[in-house]
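Input (structure):
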């Protein structure tokens, strides 16, 4: 059956007058695969290079009689090929017997006086390589490319995003999961990049008008004129994944961000440290004479690419570039990345983007080449550039509502007339096929199950979700085993109002706890929102320094199934909160909270009593305060616009500034105080050495307050990894009214283990970390303390912890485990300290 299936694909290829050529290239004598060899059609621009395992795939739009293959140190040869499909070719090259006989055929280039190499030559240093001289000219002109050169600009953009199941064969089609919607297999095609059979599952098209200015201050307005989607358009998890896959990148930057990993750009100024470059030929691209340069990695362990580029011989700017990741890259769920960019020429010195195509080969279970996976494509076309379009600031301040402007209701005639490029025959059939698929009950059940697993909520009634199943069970010393049931309203992913509630029960204390919150967003542009809520619960206070006044949130330390030591420092919390929030500018949130709460100990062994103004002992605190919060996340991107947005993974920093003022006497509040807190966190890509996550927190409380209102340095007594906490510290070990903390964590992305042969194939990654805190507490706050918790701050020496971890542990793609080894650096003379500890964490990511 499999042979019949592939015969069908081959027949289809012949009918479409295409050549699809795949195979592997070997050394004739050693029978070893030849990496990064040249595969091309003589006299044409059709070219590819073999992967690091010797495999290749090349597709043409017409039939050609022969193929030319070559590589440095080998004799170039030509082989005959037949029309249509040429699958699983086994090609060999003969090594040159005498390296001295390797001649160089050259053509003088007057502009650089360089040699265009027609056959390979080994260079002693990069300055002898003619490709170096060309790239050096490219680097000198890199800032002249793109719209940033002009004061004003306008252009139209067409974007197409497509998801396809790949490696579809007859055995895959017979799986039970596809019963009742076998009709989808009528749309199978093969990829022009990899040659794998694929089945389209999602298609999204968008047309934008982009207007901007660079001077005197940069502003841009991006209006969505039309949008058309079929496939998983109503599934919030899939939609979020689609939008989150693609990062904005610039190939002229030295590093390109894919999956939050810094790949070395093929035209990086330090590229010769990571790539081998070879000048192949000169050719014409759109009537422009160009140098064609091939490149491939010096080391497969680096985050690098293989591919080729065309550089204009006069302007020395990119005309086109394509790059593809190496086989076996240490990125979970990713088998392949392929990018092709084309540029159009405005004049002799200005090039502009014309077309950008990105294809990612993703796989859920494992990364074997023949396992079923997912192609994620993104195509962008740009046209109608205008640099004389001048707009004032009022134009950029106006809001464009794609719903009100009818962007989602364009008919088929509009799309036929306004698409920048026609859909293929296969793409044209996607909408019909996917609409039929979405009306299949079995398919709907599969999507619903995916959403339940991902979100933790199940749609029990029309607009009511129940969950969250991820936090249904817990345990602590006061409540024993605890069950928590929650519900929320849910009309859709862009709900402008939402009500949520929870009910919990402790089987040891035999008490119910509850909470309810209602929120309403009045405006989706400035996100003006009001909310109110209340709860009665048992919580571990001091699990975070920069906390929020949320009602439905609960700290990780309040319930855990496995932990070292006891967890008796819990508090009974009775809290009511009302808030207003607004985003006056993009990515800046201002929020004002008014909170009333009472706090008392939940355990007879945890004494939080203090000396009140009447010099009497008091064991519960009444607190009324307001909090003004400033949250800024520059360059952050979100999916959806409703109350609950999904933040896309970016490298944007997060800046939080909070001011809290407590009022004495209002609603019988016991204390007047002021507290100011600042938190800065930022993931930093550090080139090929990995990524560092840095978090800084500082704060100070002004006024006399008891234990429950002071800043407790957050400890983690669980066996799980918790960011922002101290792994070897005990609950309430350090208490401060003034503090400064620093957390640094460096992820090497597998760089270290890539140099160790026995460990390289495991794809483990190392992480190193150090944490520190310095704090103090004034004499007034010490004087009112009557609790059994000593007021101790790390005010003489910085308390610190350090250690390392191994992450990306698992099987196949599911490398979700991380193990940390933590050491406590000082304050070792305190009772019940833990000098060393092991923590285990879970992380699903690339």
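Output (sequence):
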């Amino acid at each position: 059956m499999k042979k019949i299936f592939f015969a069908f694909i081959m027949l289809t290829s012949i009918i479409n007058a295409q050549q699809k050529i795949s195979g592997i290239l070997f050394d004739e004598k050693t029978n070893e695969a030849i990496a990064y060899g040249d595969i091309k059609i003589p006299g044409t621009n059709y070219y590819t290079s073999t992967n690091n395992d010797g495999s290749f795939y090349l597709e043409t739009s017409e039939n050609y009689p022969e193929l030319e293959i070559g590589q440095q140190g080998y004799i170039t040869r030509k082989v005959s090929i037949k029309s249509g499909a040429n699958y699983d070719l086994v090609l060999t090259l003969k090594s040159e017997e005498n390296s001295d006989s390797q001649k160089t055929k050259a053509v003088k280039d007057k502009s650089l006086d360089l040699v265009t190499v027609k056959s390979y030559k080994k260079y002693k240093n990069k300055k002898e390589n003619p490709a170096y001289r060309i790239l050096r000219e490219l680097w000198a002109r890199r800032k002249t490319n793109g719209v940033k050169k002009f004061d004003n600009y306008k252009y139209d953009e067409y974007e197409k995003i497509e998801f396809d199941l790949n490696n579809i064969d007859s055995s895959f089609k017979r799986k039970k999961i596809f019963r009742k919607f076998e009709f989808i297999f009528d749309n199978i095609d093969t990829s022009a990049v990899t040659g794998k059979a694929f089945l389209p599952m999602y298609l999204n098209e968008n047309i934008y008008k982009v207007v901007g200015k660079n001077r005197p201050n940069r502003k841009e307005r991006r209006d969505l004129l039309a949008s058309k989607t079929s496939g998983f358009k109503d599934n919030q998890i899939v939609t979020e994944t689609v939008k989150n896959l693609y990062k904005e990148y610039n190939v002229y930057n030295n590093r390109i961000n894919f999956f939050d990993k810094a790949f070395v750009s093929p035209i990086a100024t330090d590229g010769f440290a990571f790539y081998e470059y070879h000048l192949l030929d000169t050719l014409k691209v759109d009537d422009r004479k160009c140098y064609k340069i091939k490149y491939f990695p010096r080391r497969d362990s680096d985050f690098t690419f293989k591919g080729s580029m065309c550089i204009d011989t006069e302007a020395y700017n990119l005309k086109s570039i394509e790059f593809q990741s190496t086989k076996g890259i240490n990125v979970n769920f990713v088998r392949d990345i392929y990018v092709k960019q084309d540029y159009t020429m405005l004049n002799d010195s200005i090039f502009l983007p014309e077309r950008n195509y990105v294809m990612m080969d993703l796989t859920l279970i494992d990364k074997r080449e023949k396992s079923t996976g997912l192609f994620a494509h993104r195509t962008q076309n740009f046209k109608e550039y205008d640099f004389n379009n001048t707009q004032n600031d009022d134009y950029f301040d106006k809001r464009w509502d794609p719903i009100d402007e009818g962007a989602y209701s364009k008919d088929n005639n509009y799309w036929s007339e306004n698409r920048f490029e026609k859909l293929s025959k296969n793409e044209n059939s996607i909408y019909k096929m996917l609409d039929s698929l979405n009306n299949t009950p079995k398919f709907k059940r599969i999507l619903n199950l995916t959403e339940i697993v991902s979100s933790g909520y199940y749609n029990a009634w029309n607009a009511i979700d129940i969950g969250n199943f991820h936090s249904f069970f817990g345990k602590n010393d006061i409540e024993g085993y605890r069950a928590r049931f929650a519900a929320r309203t849910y009309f859709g992913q862009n709900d402008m109002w939402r009500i949520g509630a929870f009910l919990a029960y402790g089987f040891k204390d035999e008490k119910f706890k509850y909470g309810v919150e209602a929120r309403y967003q009045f405006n989706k542009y400035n996100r003006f929102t009001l909310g109110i809520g209340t709860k009665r619960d048992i919580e571990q206070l001091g699990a975070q320094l920069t906390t929020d006044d949320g009602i439905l949130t609960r700290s990780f330390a309040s319930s855990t199934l496995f932990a070292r030591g006891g967890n008796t420092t819990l508090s009974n919390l009775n809290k009511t909160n009302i808030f207003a929030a607004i985003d006056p500018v993009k990515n800046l949130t201002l929020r004002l909270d008014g909170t009333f709460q009472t706090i008392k100990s939940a355990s007879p062994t945890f004494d939080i009593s203090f000396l009140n103004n009447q010099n009497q002992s008091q064991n519960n605190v009444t607190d009324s305060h307001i909090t003004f919060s400033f949250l800024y996340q520059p360059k952050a991107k979100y999916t959806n616009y409703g109350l609950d947005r999904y933040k896309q993974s970016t490298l944007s920093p997060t800046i939080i500034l909070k001011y809290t003022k407590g009022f004495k006497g209002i609603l019988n509040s016991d204390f007047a105080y002021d507290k100011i807190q600042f938190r800065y966190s930022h993931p930093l890509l550090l080139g090929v050495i990995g990524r560092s996550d840095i978090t800084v927190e500082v704060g100070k409380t002004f006024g006399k307050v008891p234990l429950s209102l002071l800043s407790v340095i957050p400890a983690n007594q669980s066996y799980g990894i918790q960011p922002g906490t101290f792994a070897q510290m005990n609950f309430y070990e350090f208490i401060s009214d003034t503090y400064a903390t620093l957390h640094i964590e460096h992820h090497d992305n597998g760089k270290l283990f890539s140099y160790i042969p026995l460990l390289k194939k495991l794809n483990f990654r190392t992480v190193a970390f150090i944490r520190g805190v310095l704090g103090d507490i004034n004499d007034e706050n010490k004087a009112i303390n009557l609790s059994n918790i000593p007021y101790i701050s790390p005010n003489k020496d910085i308390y610190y912890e350090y250690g390392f971890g191994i992450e990306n542990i698992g099987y196949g793609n599911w490398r979700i485990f991380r193990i940390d080894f933590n050491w406590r650096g000082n304050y070792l003379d305190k009772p019940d300290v833990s000098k060393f500890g092991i923590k285990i964490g879970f992380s699903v990511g690339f």
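Notes: DSSP finds eleven helices and 46 strands in the chain. Confidence is low (pLDDT under 50) at residues 1-17, 98-119.
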